Amino acid sequence: xxxxxxxxxxxxxxxxxxxxxxxxxxxxxxxxxxxxxxxxxxxxxxxxxxxxxxxxxxxxxxxxxxxxxxxxxxxxxxxxxxxxxxxxxxxxxxxxxxxxxxxxxxxxxxxxxxxxxxxxxxxxxxxxxxxxxxxxxxxxxxxxxxxxxxxxxxxxxxxxxxxxxxxxxxxxxxxxxxxxxxxxxxxxxxxxxxxxxxxxxxxxxxxxxxxxxxxxxxxxxxxxxxxxxxxxxxxxxxxxxxxxxxxxxxxxxxxxxxxxxxxxxxxxxxxxxxxxxxxxxxxxxxxx
Amino acid sequence: xxxxxxxxxxxxxxxxxxxxxxxxxxxxxxxxxxxxxxxxxxxxxxxxxxxxxxxxxxxxxxxxxxxxxxxxxxxxxxxxxxxxxxxxxxxxxxxxxxxxxxxxxxxxxxxxxxxxxxxxxxxxxxxxxxxxxxxxxxxxxxxxxxxxxxxxxxxxxxxxxxxxxxxxxxxxxxxxxxxxxxxxxxxxxxxxxxxxxxxxxxxxxxxxxxxxxxxxxxxxxxxxxxxxxxxxxxxxxxxxxxxxxxxxxxxxxxxxxxxxxxxxxxxxxxxxxxxxxxxxxxxxxxxx
Lengths: 288, 288
Fold this sequence. Notes:
Two copies of one chain form a homodimer. By secondary structure, the first copy, chain A, is α/β, with parallel strands linked by helices. Chain A has helices at 22-31, 53-69, 80-94, 105-115, 126-131, 133-141, 154-159, 166-178, 196-202, 213-226, 246-257; strands spanning 12-16, 37-41, 74-77, 100-102, 119-124, 145-150, 184-187, 208-210, 238-242, 264-270, 273-276.
C-alpha cells in the first residue's frame, strides 16, 4: 500500500468527552509504548451522557476535526457515549484512504461475549444505554441475554474523587443490583475502572467484572498490524488537549492515566471549531 | 407610569438550567397564585454547573430571548449558577423600560444575613462557588463570615431520585462537614430543597437550614408592587418549555413543582436560538 511517508510519524488521536478516556489511553500506551498519542478531552463541555444526540454529534465532529488538524491519521473514540451514538456518523463523514475513526463498542461486545456464560449486564451513561448499540453489537455475535442500565451518578462520583467513600460504594451497589441476575458486568463508561474496588465489593461471587479497555488496546494492535500506514512506533510521546480547566485536567487526569500529566493545552470553541486558545477565568458577574 | 396595556397580561418568565428552578416557581406561584407563568428549563443542556462561563452566557441569552418571545416582560433567573455568573450581563443586554431580568443571588444573600448569627455556609455548583458572587453580595450587607463549597453530586442525586437513599444522606453529610463551623447553611442550588430530610439529618443542633426560594418570592411580590406594569393577576396559568425530553421533564418536574405537569413543550436550538420543535428520539447509531 503506497502511503504518504509523513503519516508514519502521525500520532494516534484519542477522543473523549473528558477525563474518562485516559483509562483507555493508559491501556493503549501500555500496548503501544513507542507510539505517539494526542488526547483530546472535551472536559469543558462534559458530561456528554445526558445530552441530546445532536449535541453529541456536533461536539464529537469538532473533536475529530481538531485531532486530524493536530496531525493524527487515526482517531480512537474512547468514549462509550460517542462510540454508541456517533461512531458511524464520524466514520461516514471523515474516514478516507488516509484517515480512520475507530470506537470501543464493538471491542466491548466482543470481550463481553468471550467472557460471559450467557447473561451480560452493562452499566453506562443514559445516552449510551438509550442507544441500545451495545446490545445490537452483542446480538451480531451471540444469542446471550443482555441487560443495559444507566448509572448517571458514577462518573460524577469519580470526578469528585469519592470512589473509596461510603457514597461510592453505596451507589455502585445500587446500580449492580439494578442489573439483576447477570454473570458478567461490563464497565460501559471509561470512568468506571476507577471504581474497581467498589465493584468488587458489590459483585456477588461468580460474577465477573469486565473493563473493555485492555481488549480495545489488543484489537488496536492487531488493527495496526493490518493497516501499517496509520501509525508507527516513534518516541512514545503524549500531548493532552482539553476544553476545560487545564490545571484541573492535569490533576484529575493523572488519577485516570496512572501517571503525572505535565502539560495540558487549552482549546476553546470559536465559530463551531475547537482551536488553541488562552483561557481566561472570570470571577463574579461576567459581562461581555 | 404609562405602559403598553398588552403587558398587563404578560406571563412572568422563569428561567432555569433544568428542573431545579421549579422549586423556585413553586414558591412564586404560592405567593402570586393568580399570575401567569412561563417556565423554560434548559434540561437538554443541563447541568450548567460545571460549564465554562462563555457557554453559560450563550445558553442563558437564548433562554431569555425565548421567554421574551413567549410574551414575558419580566424574567426571573431561578438558577443560582446563571444568576451568579450572568445576571449582570443579561440585565445589561436585555433590560429596557418594558423588560426586566431579576435573579436569586441578592435575595439569597439578604435572607442569609437576616437568618445568620455570623457564620454563613453556602453549598452550590462548582460554577456558582467559583464566581464568589454570593460572598460579594453578603459583603455589601454585613461583615459576617462566609464559606462557599461546591457540592457537584447533589443535583445529580436529586435527578436520579435518590434523595432518600443512603447515597443521598451520605453525600449531604460529607458536604455539610466540608463547610466547617457555620450557623446557617444556604441551599445555593435549586435542586437542594428536595434533599431537605437529608440536610436536617446531617446538620448539627442549632445550625439553621435556609432555602432562599420563599425569600425570592416575597421580594418579587414587593418588586411587582413597585413596578406594576410588568405582570398582573390573571388566570394563574402555567406553561412549561424544555430543551430536553418532555416526558422526562413532566415526570421529574412534578417532584420539584409539587404538582402534576400536564403538558411540556419542546424547544430545540436552531441557528443559535431556541425555537418550538418536534423532538425526534433516535436509537442506535445516528448518521446525519
